[in-house]
Backbone:
């Protein structure tokens, strides 16, 4: 494992999002963020809602991902995300609006019409999207 | 003898129709290309999911999963994927015919339908087979969300034991001029064997493998549904393109034959007038 890079592939059901040789990647695992360097042991994990970042030289790319799986093989990492957006693709205004909406819903807990879990998930998703959009290269 | 003016009007109307069919053909060609691209883009995800499912299934301790459970098929749900719009040749008629055949074949079991696409709903809405769910107007813009929504309903009915099997009926895109009708059993998930050239990778599992499989299985079904939707959409555009091409050609032929009839009629009119003038002059002398 002398190689200093590995291949990172991020696919969502609708398209191939990233396919690149990277030196390091950080993925939002269900049990916490995981850093992956070349030569990692084969691994399989579920992903949570979160920010995925990867480093190519001095450039770092950011993605907002929503659930999925990460499969680490000897020379490549494959991320199957249910949704994945690159920093520059995130519509910050929409994400912010979604965040406000989710916050409002959560502050209204006595209303039985509101599905608490769903509101929390949408808040989490919106937060991550806003965060990613503020990264370099993002729209914010 | 037909009236020259009438024929001329008729030609103009055919020409207008021809313009419409020609435009529709071009639009379909563009949409077909986009639909094909969408199929290609969806392929890596579908392929990887299948690989992961396979390598998980290869581990003997987790062969059992509720979505794999085979039961006696007493009640069935059939998902019929048609188009939302017509004017695409025999596309919708074929799928509806196949659905009718399937319903007859399974006549002794209780069966209901899940109509995806307006045309199927229009047809079966007037028939006796009950429609349990419907999903229309999605082909304008198919997203993975549609597949998730449809699959969610199917899976929960299967798991509750309300349905013993779910079949999926759709048009597969073979080529621009060819569609193939496919019936697939969606649930229980048919046994997935390891590809012969594939050896299971010994992963470190962050979560127990069974837990991963639990969330992976419904996704595997979603991917199947999503692929069926994309295939059907590409097939629809292909069918429409061929149908509109044929219609445009027919219009050209029709214009030709109408022009011929019109010229004949005009000629006959002129001849008649000359005869009248000549005979009028002859009568005077």
Residues:
């Amino acid at each position: 494992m002398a190689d200093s890079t590995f291949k990172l592939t991020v696919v969502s059901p609708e398209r191939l999002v990233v396919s690149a040789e990277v030196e390091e990647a950080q993925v939002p695992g269900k049990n916490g963020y995981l850093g992956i360097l070349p030569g990692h042991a084969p691994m399989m994990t579920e992903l949570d809602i979160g920010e995925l970042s990867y480093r190519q030289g001095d450039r770092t790319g950011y993605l907002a991902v929503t659930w999925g799986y990460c499969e680490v093989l000897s020379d490549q990492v494959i991320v199957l995300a249910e949704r994945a957006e690159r920093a520059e693709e995130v519509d910050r205004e929409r994400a912010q609006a979604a965040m406000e909406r989710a916050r409002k819903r959560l502050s209204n807990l006595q209303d039985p019409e509101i599905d608490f879990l769903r509101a929390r998930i949408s808040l989490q998703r919106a937060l991550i999207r806003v965060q990613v959009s503020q990264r370099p290269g993002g729209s914010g | 003898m037909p009236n020259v003016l009438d024929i001329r009007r008729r030609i103009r109307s055919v020409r207008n129709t021809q313009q419409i069919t020609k435009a529709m053909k071009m639009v379909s060609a563009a949409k077909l290309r986009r639909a094909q691209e969408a199929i290609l883009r969806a392929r890596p995800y579908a392929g990887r999911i299948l690989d992961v499912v396979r390598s998980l299934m290869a581990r003997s301790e987790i062969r059992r999963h509720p979505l794999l459970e085979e039961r006696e098929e007493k009640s069935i749900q059939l998902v019929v994927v048609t188009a939302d719009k017509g004017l695409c040749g025999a596309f919708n008629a074929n799928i509806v015919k196949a659905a009718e055949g399937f319903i007859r074949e399974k006549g002794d079991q209780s069966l209901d339908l899940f109509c995806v696409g307006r045309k199927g709903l229009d047809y079966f809405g007037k028939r006796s087979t009950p429609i349990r769910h419907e999903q229309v107007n999605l082909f304008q813009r198919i997203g993975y969300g549609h597949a998730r929504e449809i699959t969610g309903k199917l899976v929960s009915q299967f798991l509750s034991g309300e349905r013993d099997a779910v079949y999926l009926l759709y048009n597969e895109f073979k080529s621009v001029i060819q569609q193939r009708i496919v019936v697939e059993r969606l649930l229980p998930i048919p046994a997935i064997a390891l590809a012969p050239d594939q050896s299971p990778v010994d992963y470190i599992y962050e979560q127990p493998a069974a837990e991963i499989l639990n969330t992976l299985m419904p996704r595997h079904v979603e991917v199947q549904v999503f692929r069926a939707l994309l295939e059907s959409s590409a097939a629809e555009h292909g069918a429409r393109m061929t149908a509109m091409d044929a219609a445009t050609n027919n219009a050209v032929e029709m214009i030709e034959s109408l022009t011929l009839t019109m010229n004949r009629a005009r000629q006959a009119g002129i001849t008649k007038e000359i005869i009248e003038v000549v005979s009028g002059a002859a009568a005077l002398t």
